[in-house]
């Protein structure tokens, strides 16, 4: 198909979507069909081309600031530049590294940024060694209990929001062994004493995870990893913000 014909088809499709969304009593079937076509089309719709991506941020230059990469087509072929050395992220957890073409997706308003705080174990608290306990994490501004198949759809979809403008997703709880509570050496992210994706929605604003085997005697750090449905860490609209996750330090005796 010639480029002019492609452009005309895209404009007609965009008009169908706009009309279906705006017209009172418009057919929901038409709207669904138009949306489905947009999600299966191999051509970038002109309405989503972000002209801001063509600006490297150095107008004028700022000392010490790095110029951004730029694109006039929303980076739609970015990962083509990495092939075959770096494979595409394909829904699997590729431990050797990959390149992801899924968009970031919907970003919440600043007033709807999520946050979390551990209820148990409390910071500086203690649990009985090798005894079961329930980790509890208080959360706000996130619709929890929503997760996709991490073995097949990892990072394979954009972040989405619910009708209240909150990120739709879930959280994880990870416990790492420390040499001491005052340890300053960075930990190894590939090593942990406990890890659990919290599948259930929060109850009264609190997520719970059973640490059924407990942990051996020692010092520990427990942290949350708040995520969108496809397991990517939550994305928020501003660079300057408080922590979206929480960590507490505790001992097992």
Rounded mean pLDDT is 91
* Count of helix runs: 2
Number of individual domains: 2
CATH topology of the largest domain: Immunoglobulin-like
Major sheet attributes: 7 strands, mixed
From the N-terminal CA to the C-terminal CA, the straight-line distance is: 71 Å
Organism: Mycena belliarum
InterPro entries: Appressorial_penetr-assoc
Protein name: Ribosomal protein s17
Signal peptide: 1-22
Keywords, separated by commas or semicolons:
single chain, alpha+beta, 2 helices, Immunoglobulin-like
How is the topology of this model organized?
Layout: H1 3-22, H2 28-40, E1 115-120, E2 126-127, E3 133-140, E4 142-143, E5 167-178, E6 194-198, E7 206-211, E8 218-224, E9 227-228, E10 247-252
Parallel strand pairs: 2-10, 4-5
Antiparallel strand pairs: 1-3, 3-7, 5-6, 5-8, 5-9, 8-10
Helix pairs in contact: 1-2
Give a description of the structure.
The protein is α+β, with helices and mostly antiparallel strands and 253 residues long. It contains two helices and ten strands. Strands 2, 4, 5, 6, 8, 9 and 10 form a seven-stranded mixed β-sheet that branches. A three-stranded antiparallel β-sheet has the order 1-3-7, with no helix packed on it. The radius of gyration is 23 Å and the shape is globular. It starts with a helix and ends with a strand. It comes from Mycena belliarum. This is Ribosomal protein s17. Keywords: Signal. Residues 1-22 form the signal peptide.
């Amino acid at each position: 198909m010639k480029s002019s014909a492609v452009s005309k088809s895209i404009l007609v499709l965009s008009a169908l979507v706009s009309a279906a969304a705006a017209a009172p009593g418009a057919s929901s079937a038409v709207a669904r069909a138009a949306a489905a076509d947009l999600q299966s089309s191999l051509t970038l719709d002109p309405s989503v081309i972000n002209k801001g991506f063509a600006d490297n941020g150095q107008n004028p230059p700022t000392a010490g600031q790095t110029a951004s990469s730029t694109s006039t087509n929303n980076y739609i072929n970015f990962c083509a530049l990495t092939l075959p050395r770096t494979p595409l992220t394909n829904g699997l957890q590729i431990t050797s590294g990959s390149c992801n073409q899924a968009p970031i997706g919907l970003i919440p308003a600043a007033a709807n940024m999520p946050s979390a705080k551990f209820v148990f174990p409390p910071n500086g608290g203690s649990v009985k060694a090798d005894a079961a306990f329930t980790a509890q994490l208080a959360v706000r501004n996130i619709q929890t209990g929503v997760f996709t198949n991490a073995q097949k759809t990892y990072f394979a979809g954009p972040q989405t929001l619910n009708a209240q403008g909150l990120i739709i997703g879930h959280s994880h709880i990870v416990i790492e062994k420390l040499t001491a509570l005052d340890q300053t050496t960075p930990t190894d992210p590939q090593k942990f004493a406990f890890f659990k994706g919290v599948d259930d929605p929060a109850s009264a604003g609190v997520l719970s995870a059973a640490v059924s085997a407990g942990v051996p005697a020692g010092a520990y750090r427990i942290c949350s990893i708040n995520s969108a449905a496809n397991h990517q860490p939550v994305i928020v609209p501003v660079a300057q913000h408080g922590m979206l996750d929480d960590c507490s330090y505790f001992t097992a005796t």
